[in-house]
Specification:
CATH topology of the largest domain: Glycosyltransferase
Number of strands: 28
Distance between the termini: 33 Å
Largest sheet: 8 strands, antiparallel
Strand order of the largest sheet: 6-7-8-9-16-13-12-11
Length: about 700
């Protein structure tokens, strides 16, 4: 019953999205765990194209159903030569994606369930997605010999065609497992952006209590010429003579689930898909295991636990879907709720989650389709609201490796914060710009301000300044740097580095001023009262000077020396959220009023230089508004863009506000920044954080 309530409540939100047309995700999440195990559908109909990795490279999963002796296709492109079922609907909730199809007198519901429960670190780290199939007769007649086939290409376990793979079949206590992985198994062998994993193993698992058959068979298994299409059965023997080279007559993993005669109510079968890699991240030359493996849990043990816990996880996640969607709708409307739903799994799937050698959780973000950096500070900064809202422990787990890195004198020697920790998945030292060796193309004010603001936000959220206390000398160094350079930044890059260098950047100065107050706040929490007074006075003095330097009539400029310009002052949002109160409310109101005169069809441009915008910053800017009407003035064009953008990729955060086209970036964690509006609702934030606190207490008791 709960599953049905979740579906209906989400559908209600979606139908309100726009009066022009039903909601249409630019890309639909299917399997979303980390930057390497992330599979999407980039077309409206699941049968219109192959499933793909978030980069757009094919990772085909084909789904067929056989009814009364005739095969139909419900997933995958038309290369199979098998007719497609008619897709009735598609819905996306925070943890589920569901499709409904009909054909040959039956209805088939396909569900992808990834238990992305941010309050539960063990479940969050477990790399398993449940795929369920529910079949029922819709024409009043019984249908015989009904079965479903799932066929997975070995492309899912290599970077590109031409690599050699190996296959295996294993039996756990609860399921049969077919596996495929690269033959070379060069663990953590390379870094980069447009790459897929080529170590570890993909697993297709079928519970023993599901009547099924499985086989490792030639890629023709899912075509009209294959045994399944012709006879309704997979070969009884695995194909031992298939080529090990992907793309050259190689074998696929295939599983058939039997429904037999379908006549009355619905019947459901399910399987599990997972990816395990032993080591996921290299940090300061140390290979680190995924969090779920920290205590030596085996792959078989993990899969068995996942199967046993599925009913309880389904209930928890369905409750999360319904409650979160309703809460977000009450907070800021259906359009905002839908944006947050689309951002939810994407924001997490751009991260790797591992255990440090001392057993601490560490989280590493990947800068997808930008330069592939790992632990990028100005990517973590816009994504931070996602973690602050659901579970601040995860934000601390992402800040801690950065703080540890900068405290090592043989690595980071500058008086400001770094940009990154390396290139994913190798976090061995900054690679952006000049790396560790030069100040050229660094972001000194940007990253120092980001770090101070996030450390203070975590301390406030957790009620504990332990991270600040441990690394106080480094935070002090950055605060001193901002005191000297933050009010009037020199010619340097910001997080919006694609826009180039800007001297006297007003929005960057806002960040520095708020960051000085963040440092003062941390000093207060650590009972360093003299330091707190000094830096708070500096922040207030700088705020007054900023107003005088940047004001131009009814708005504020892009830069102090740039008349007839404007820009989104998204960094001002922390002054409101963290209660610094350095700037008057009238400043926010005047900026929002001015922004409303600059709106284009699909949103508010980033500034006066171009028509492009950033999705995350637009919501930060909208959160400055004091009324729902003003917030929606910026939000509603974004909702229209979601529905109409020609960019059929996992949410891009950089697009043109006039034609809706993608400028760059996709599948990035920064979309987690859209949760900043929810974060501004203190009661709602306390409610969701409480779930993480309760789960952590339960875990401590159980151990």
């Amino acid at each position: 019953m709960l599953k049905r309530i979740t579906f209906l409540s989400t559908l209600l939100v979606l139908t309100k999205l726009t009066a022009q047309q039903p909601p249409r995700p630019p890309s639909t999440p299917l399997i979303t765990h980390n930057p390497y195990f992330s599979i999407w559908s980039n077309t409206d109909d699941l049968t219109a194209s192959s499933t793909v990795h978030w980069t757009g490279k094919p990772q085909p999963i084909v789904g067929l159903v056989r009814v009364d002796g005739h095969p139909l296709r419900f997933m995958g492109g038309d290369r199979s030569g098998i007719p497609a079922m008619h897709q009735i609907s598609r819905s996306v909730t925070p943890t589920h994606t569901r499709y409904v199809f009909n054909g040959a007198g039956i209805e088939l519901e396909l569900s992808f369930f990834t238990p992305t429960i941010l309050s539960d670190l063990d479940i969050l780290s477990r790399p398993v997605t449940y795929v369920s199939f529910t079949v029922k007769s819709i024409d009043g007649a019984p249908h015989k010999d009904v079965s479903v086939l799932a066929d997975v290409s070995p492309l899912i376990a290599v970077n590109s065609p031409g690599e050699a793979v190996t296959y295996s079949r294993n039996q756990t206590d609860t399921q049969t497992v077919l596996s495929v992985g690269s033959r070379e198994q060069r663990i953590l062998n390379r870094s980069g952006d447009d790459l897929r994993i080529d170590w570890g193993y993909f697993h297709l698992s079928v519970p023993n209590d599901e009547e099924s058959a499985s086989a490792i068979v030639r890629e023709t298994s899912a075509s009209a010429d294959g045994a399944y299409a012709k006879t309704g059965f997979l070969p009884k023997a695995d194909d031992m003579d298939a080529s090990p080279i992907v793309g050259r007559g190689n074998a696929h993993l295939a599983t058939e689930l039997f429904f037999h005669t379908v006549s009355g109510g619905p019947a459901t079968r399910h399987l599990l898909v997972s990816y395990t890699e032993d080591y996921a991240i290299q940090y300061l030359e140390r290979n680190l295991r995924p969090w779920w493996q920290r205590n030596g849990q085996t792959v078989a043990g993990m899969l068995d636990a996942a199967e046993r816990e599925m009913p309880a996880l389904e209930k928890r996640a369905s409750d999360l879907d319904a409650t979160l969607t309703a809460d977000l709708t009450r907070t800021a409307g259906a359009n905002y709720a839908y944006l947050c739903v689309l951002a939810y799994r994407q924001a997490w799937a751009a991260h790797g989650f591992v255990a440090n050698l001392d057993g601490q959780p560490l989280v590493f973000g990947k800068e997808n389709f930008s330069n592939g950096s790992i632990g990028t500070v100005d990517v973590l900064y816009p994504a931070a609201p996602f973690f602050l809202f659901f579970n601040p422990v995860l934000l601390e787990a992402e800040l801690r490796p950065l703080m540890e890195y900068t405290a090592l004198p043989n690595h980071w020697r500058f008086p400001f914060a770094p940009h990154d920790l390396g290139t994913y998945p190798l976090a061995n030292g900054q690679t952006y710009g000049g790396g560790e060796k030069t100040e050229e193309n660094q972001m000194p004010v940007e990253e120092s301000g980001n770090m101070l603001l996030m450390v203070d936000a975590v301390a406030r959220a957790e009620g504990n300044p332990r991270l600040a206390e441990q690394y106080w000398p480094k935070l002090t160094e950055w605060a001193e740097f901002l005191k000297a350079h933050g009010l009037d930044p020199e010619n340097q890059l910001t997080t919006d580095d694609f826009a180039g260098h800007v001297t006297h950047n007003a929005n960057l100065a806002l960040k520095a001023i708020d960051a000085l107050e963040a440092y003062a706040d941390l000093a207060r929490l650590l009972h360093k009262d003299t330091v707190a007074r000094e830096y708070s006075e500096t922040a207030h003095t700088y705020a007054a000077k900023w107003i005088d330097l940047d004001k131009e009539g009814d708005h504020y400029k892009l830069a102090y020396d740039s008349p007839n310009t404007w820009s989104q002052k998204y960094n001002l949002v922390w002054d409101k959220l963290l209660g610094y109160n350095l700037f008057p409310e009238s400043l926010r109101e005047s900026e929002i009023a001015y922004y409303k005169t600059k709106l284009n069809k699909y949103g508010l441009p980033l500034d006066s230089r171009a028509d492009y915008t950033k999705l995350d910053w637009s919501i930060w800017t909208a959160t400055l508004a004091s009324s729902p009407a003003d917030f929606n003035a910026i939000m509603d064009p974004i909702a229209r863009w979601i529905n109409e953008t020609p960019a059929r990729v996992p949410l891009t955060d950089w697009y043109d506000t006039k034609d809706g086209k993608q400028i760059g970036f996709q599948a990035r964690s920064v979309v987690g920044g859209v949760y900043i509006k929810a974060l501004a609702d203190k009661k709602l934030t306390e409610k969701w954080r409480a779930k993480a606190i309760a789960t952590a207490k339960d875990a401590a008791i159980s151990h």
